[in-house]
Design the sequence.
């Protein structure tokens, strides 16, 4: 029997909200049934409302990596020079697809504990006016850092290029939306801050992106990777290109309802407060955050450096075995150097962040470090109080 | 609120078995958690047992079309002449991918109410000894017909070519397994006869197919379409190439447990009896089956011709609105000409087939036809009794 | 693992509606939490609306027998002569409690395949003007017969006596409500036609009944059997007398929502059509209904006589083992003589009744009888068609 | 929509374990179906195993108060002098039923923050050798105190009297079992430490108790309050006296499975560690525990005094609104004077206790008190560490 740890604070998948979990047991209705088609059309509109789109979003039937690959395959043409903004493992990793589908891949890299400076982007675009597509990861989860996507989007749009934004682990947990950041393709997930299970990608596609995709002869068609196949999937008179993942669709619907019932602003505030408590608490434990500045630390995951002399997996296991708290390891450049606490969906609860601080502090002590756990908790509380006043 | 019709007898998705539906509400455990990795390794073995494989199966994180496309993309190399066996809409449709990935596509076509005759295949292979890949659909659902895949497999293997078998809507509901039919890639679904929701493809890949795929430079790698990425996904020491669709994974596990608890042979007998009742009943109503001979009619779906002068959608709506029975329409060449009753998973119940016969008969009568519904029911019962004795 | 038969057509418990089943997995919220108290107050109002009450209903935390016993214990005082109307096993059985709590128990009995004639009641009340409480079972499930409760209620009210109505297996499936039948205590169940699981009794109590109960020194107080304890349980400022059965409460809420969404009249029509089909079908099989006249046959269960020479349990097992249909046996006076098909909640589907007729006919034949199953199905269809025109 | 607070640490009902919640959506199988009867017989044996009984336990179809009332009504005869041991609100409250069913009720009272001293009991029994029934509450939840039931049981048995033990909020969370404490009726709950929803009472009844009950003319028979009706309810050849509450039965089965899978000793250790952390943490916050000595503090709930000058409901609301932690208020003699943190079932997690300490400390501070929250957390951690070494 599969049992989840009591406190699963991983950067995704995250535990489902209770109402989402209930929705997973809902009816699996034949996708050719008009009842389902009407439901799906309504779901697309509901999602469009949550994404604050003026056109229809696309739901792809696979977890976020499908959407990211589909975005690259669809938007990037064989003649396109692509600029990959790389402030972290995920942002840089997108280059794999850029290389596969584009003509040439340029990379603007900053250290993985920093964010892309907009002026660097402007300079690079000026130097290479032929750049047609820019890609950026909003919240680079292995680093826990945010890029200034709205500024980036404004620059790219002014340049006349197209922008792909990976907002997988930020959307839903903070104030970021496709059109507000001038994204041409904006890739979000059902399985992070919305609190649904992994299995669906949520995409916003601008009208100019649709036009470019349609003109792109290599854009996937009749393929699981296709965006085009799904452009009008909401139309009740059309068969679905692929049988939708019905249980996941039911879950997404419930997740959106829940999000709207709590209110986006309240959800964001809850995520932000949780992260603030985590950062303050960890620092008071004497731990260093991975992001160079708190100004770029994400509200949806807190990444801290594992102290010298301690092995990341040892600390993680100690926290798990002693307190039932499961953390995420680093990845790529941050592997072995950090641990990560997610604040996404149901785990975005300030008291859970404080509990994580408590558990991490106690585990460090049991590994031989001198740590003032009480100070960590007090600092986290102070950070919360500060927010409320 | 989404509500399923009382009797959803569609060719897929099908209603989940009760224990599967319960499993959907199970814990979503982080895929990097050793607990989950051990669970997944066990699941792969359980699936291998159900598929009667001597090596490990692959689970792809998308509904069956993903697996079919991935099979073509992986196995078919740019120099490969491919022979598509086309006895129906799905078998023929596979050619889209063969064309995309292969050097040349040949098609062996028979009328869509017939099956591929093995001797035709032999002749074609003799004529074109360079054919390297053959593709076949076992149960071509739009026609409700079966191809003799074991004989086909033997011929292809003897020829030295590779065989891709689409067993999406037959596997689990009848005695068909990858190695028994000499399949190199065998594509099955969680969402048909196993009674889980759509969202996962289940694949058997022969060792010689793995060798060919590895040698194929165009086989997808680092892609949602990749088989290679997943070859060793069961290894607890490796991260998953893509976050698994956890709710669907939980459901698959429960579906396999249920299948094993009832016993494969009992499950197959239940499907076969249901189809036999449906065929006998429909014929006694004066309806013609679509398959030219009952010997090639599938045990997992019964396809019948809509009588002259009646519109398929009108009959389907009448059956739905009067009795709550939802049937599938035809597709492609059979669109407008047939209706289809699925017998898959929880709907493979002889009494449900008789209820469908009753509803179809009564609906035809209400549309002005002279129909002996009682005779239909009696014939269905006789067919069942015949099987038991 | 507990598995339900495919077609569970028993007179209760009945399979839960899908949305009810989902609600069972809902949050168990502390009953002292204002959030729960507000929810409960809303639930009581919703139930009052469904019961068409002008005052608040009572929900007791146990299946219907609790409510029936509580009604007797509360309303019947030690000086009260009680008249038990006995047209069946359940109506007569109520006398056990009348005897326990009242001064004297009179019984008005009719054969158990008939209904109480109002004029008999009038005569009896005239003969014994001191009768203070009358008890009646609306749908005496072991017989499948209805009593004319509205007329009975009018007579009892005119007489100045109090009436207890057992509407456990009729309420929700037909047009019967406490105030419309002049009931002083009206006992209904969550677990029959509303389609929730067993565990709660739903009671309507008239204001005059409350007055009598309060004046009754032997009415249970501080007891699981108490109605008085629950009179104001909906008040958010009061603790619950007993911790509510939270999962069952969640289910009831969903069951009421579902009932209201379909619409009471539509629900009743569905039940009535199902029963009409069952009756016509069984008769055409050559079976005799237990109720002397169809005018008194309940829309929520069809009871038929097992033919001479056939053992009830043998027929029931044959139907179950061959077709997966589970029927109820008789009870008390009808035990061994009848079988019963329920039409309650999710099982109130005309096609299910026809399927039951089919299965029963085929089973009789396999037990050696000459039965025209086709005629049974045709007659059931004719009955349905007749209703629609 | 009903939503539970994020951290529901109330003394019951408690949140269901995940597998229990899933089981609630399981099949509702007709109680007259042999499949269900066999399942029920197995459930009774499983429960007997968990209760470490040498005879069969009884499951009553209502929450714990039903079982307590039924125990009194069944075991206490009209000639029996009854001794009520009253060390708390619940123990004393049992006297209501003793008075109702017995000849005379004696009370042995100690202050409600103390436990019954065995020597006091011995003295009382010596003074009144005619005492036939003694009642005791093991964990008097409003006080959070334990009585020494094993010693009490030995004395009562030696005296020749009968003992009723209310173990509702201790059984499952610590090492207490009917036969080990010489209980004649031992009343436990599905809804506390086992982590199932409220709706069932679990009773152990000694053979000598059964004999006394059978000899008691006033013991309920044919009643919802009857134990006798249920003595042999596990026998597959008998109809159930009352339709079982099927969803709750499914949940209980899953709760017992879970309990056995974790192992009783591990479950108890988890509860004990959680309580130890809570006690240490609260004391370090400067709060006083309600129990006079920690030796009698229960491992399943920690009760602390609300400081002078603070209103209990104000503190509770602050904790709830700021941190999402729901605590229980006091009851009866402790109402207004204490707050209570439950450690039962899924909430018996040491880190949850520390989180509660954190939240309570921070709330007190926000209400104007000088509190060292860090010290509270450190003390709780120290208590945990101490247990592990």
Sequence:
């Amino acid at each position: 029997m599969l049992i989840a740890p009591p406190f699963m604070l991983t950067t995704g998948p995250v535990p489902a909200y209770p109402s989402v979990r209930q929705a997973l047991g809902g009816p699996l209705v034949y996708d050719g049934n008009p009842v389902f088609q009407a439901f799906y059309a309504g779901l697309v509109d509901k999602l469009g409302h949550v994404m604050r789109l003026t056109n229809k979003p696309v739901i792809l039937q696979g977890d976020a990596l499908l959407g990211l690959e589909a975005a690259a395959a669809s938007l990037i043409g064989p003649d396109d020079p692509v600029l990959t903004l790389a402030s972290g493992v995920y942002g840089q990793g997108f280059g794999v697809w850029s290389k596969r589908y584009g003509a040439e891949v340029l990379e603007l890299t900053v250290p993985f504990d920093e964010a892309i400076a907009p002026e660097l982007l402007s300079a690079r675009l000026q130097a290479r006016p032929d750049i047609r597509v820019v890609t950026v990861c909003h919240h680079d989860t292995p680093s826990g850092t945010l890029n200034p996507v709205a500024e980036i989007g404004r620059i790219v749009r002014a340049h006349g290029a197209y922008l792909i934004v990976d907002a997988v682990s930020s959307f839903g947990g903070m104030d970021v939306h496709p059109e507000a950041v001038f994204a041409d393709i904006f890739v979000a997930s059902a399985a992070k801050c919305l609190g649904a299970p992994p299995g669906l990608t949520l995409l916003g596609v601008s009208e100019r992106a649709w036009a470019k995709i349609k003109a792109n002869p290599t854009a996937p068609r009749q393929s699981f990777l296709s965006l085009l196949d799904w452009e009008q999937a909401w139309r009740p008179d059309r068969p679905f290109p692929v049988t939708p993942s019905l249980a996941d669709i039911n879950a997404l619907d419930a997740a959106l309802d829940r999000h709207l019932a709590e209110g986006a602003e309240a959800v964001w505030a809850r995520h932000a407060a949780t992260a603030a408590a985590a950062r303050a608490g960890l620092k008071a434990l004497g731990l260093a955050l991975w992001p160079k500045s708190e100004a770029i630390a994400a509200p949806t995951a807190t990444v801290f450096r594992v102290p010298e002399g301690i092995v990341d997996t040892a600390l993680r296991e100690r926290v798990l075995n002693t307190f039932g708290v499961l953390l995420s390891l680093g990845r790529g450049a941050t592997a072995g150097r950090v641990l990560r606490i997610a604040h996404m969906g149901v785990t975005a609860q300030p008291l859970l962040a404080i509990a994580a601080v408590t558990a991490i502090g106690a585990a460090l002590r049991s590994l031989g470090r001198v740590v003032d756990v009480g100070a960590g908790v007090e600092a986290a509380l102070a950070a919360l109080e500060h927010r409320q006043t």
Q: What stands out?
A: Residues 263-388 of chain B form a domain with the Aspartate Aminotransferase, domain 1 fold (CATH 3.90.1150.10).
